[in-house]
Design goal:
The protein is an alpha/beta fold. It contains six helices and six strands.
C-alpha cells in the first residue's frame, strides 16, 4: 500500500514538474533499494540527513557513498549518539558528523542537490544556524 501511495505522489509530481523527496527515519540501504525498485511512476529522491545517520548508527560518509545517486536534498544537521541507543541533535560541528570528510565527498560525487542548514532543537537555533553557515563556508567555499 505504501508503494502504491508513493507511486501516486510521484506520478502527480512528474506531471507538475516536481520530484518527490522521501525523508527517512532510518537508512537501511537494502530496504531503501527494495523500496526504490518498486517506485515505477517517475523519479523519486531521498533526503540525506547526517544527523539521522549518527542517531541510528550509520556512518554518514559511507551511506552517502553507497546511495549518492538517490539523494536529491540534504539536511545539514549534526548529532551525537547517546547511551540509550538513540541520539540528540547538536549544533553543526559539535556532533559526530565528520564535516571535513563529508563535504569533499559531496564535491567528489558532483552532488547537484540543495544543502539546507537546519536546527530543530536547542535554545539558540538562529545563532546555531548562523554559525553553521559560517562553518560550511569555511569548509566548502562557494563560488559567487
Amino acid at each position: 500500500m505504501l508503494c502504491d501511495i508513493i507511486n501516486d505522489l510521484v506520478a502527480v509530481g512528474s506531471r507538475e514538474g516536481a520530484t518527490l523527496q522521501l525523508q527517512l527515519a532510518n537508512y537501511d540501504a537494502k530496504r531503501i533499494s527494495r523500496l526504490l525498485d518498486r517506485i515505477k511512476a517517475g523519479p523519486v529522491a531521498l533526503v540525506f540527513d547526517p544527523a539521522i545517520c549518527v542517531m541510528t548508527g550509520s556512518r554518514p560518509v559511507k551511506l552517502f557513498r553507497d546511495l549518492y545517486q538517490s539523494f536529491g536534498y540534504m539536511r545539514a544537521r549534526d548529532a551525537q549518539k547517546d547511551v540509550d541507543g538513540g541520539g540528540i541533535e547538536t549544533p553543526l560541528g559539535d556532533g559526530s558528523v565528520d564535516w571535513m570528510e563529508l563535504l569533499p565527498t559531496l564535491v567528489e560525487a558532483n552532488y547537484p542537490g540543495w544543502i539546507c542548514i537546519e536546527r530543530t532543537g536547542g535554545d539558540q537555533r538562529a545563532d546555531d544556524v548562523c554559525r553553521a553557515v559560517s562553518t560550511l563556508r569555511k569548509l566548502l567555499p562557494l563560488s559567487t
